[in-house]
Amino acid sequence: MKQVFLDLFNKWIRRPGASKLLEWLEGTDFFTAPASTRFHAAYEGGLLEHSLNVYHVFRAKHFEEGVDDPESVAIVTLLHDLCKAGFYTIEMRNRKNERGQWEKAPVYAIDDRFPYGHGEKSVFMIERFMRLKNEEAVAIRWHMGGFDEAVQGGSFALAHAFEKYPLAVKLHLSDLEATYLHESRDKEAKT
What we know:
Layout: H1 2-12, H2 18-26, H3 46-62, H4 70-79, E1 88-96, E2 102-110, H5 119-126, H6 134-141, H7 149-152, H8 157-164, H9 166-182, H10 187-190
Antiparallel strand pairs: 1-2
């Protein structure tokens, strides 16, 4: 899967700073981290799998030839959850085994060393290496849609973002489908 990601990244993302971003990514746990602690793709390599799923859903269902820029699509789909690199840790917790006995088991836990939000943190991290177009930054910022805590307070920013930037709507739809229709909640459910 990592090679698929690298091939897509190198094929489509050509702007200045992309190679430095990829070099930085290689030094993180991006390719081995989970996508969540317990919701979707909560297993080793889940973040990589999720990023590729979002890319493939977008290309299969939402990409419009002559309308969507393939580089922008690759950037927003492959990097929308960059904020999850270095975000998880493993800790031991008590769990009942199949015999009903308590035992220590490793679980993923959040270790957010830079609490800057979700989408906005990904935008910030990407822009340390390469500039994003406005529509790319907005799409990544709002990819969580109504699940974002900033929306729950009654902000209309999400609605305005979706009205102005179709790329943001398409990324959100692709993220939802990948998360809820293509990814399992745990490793056992995958097999």
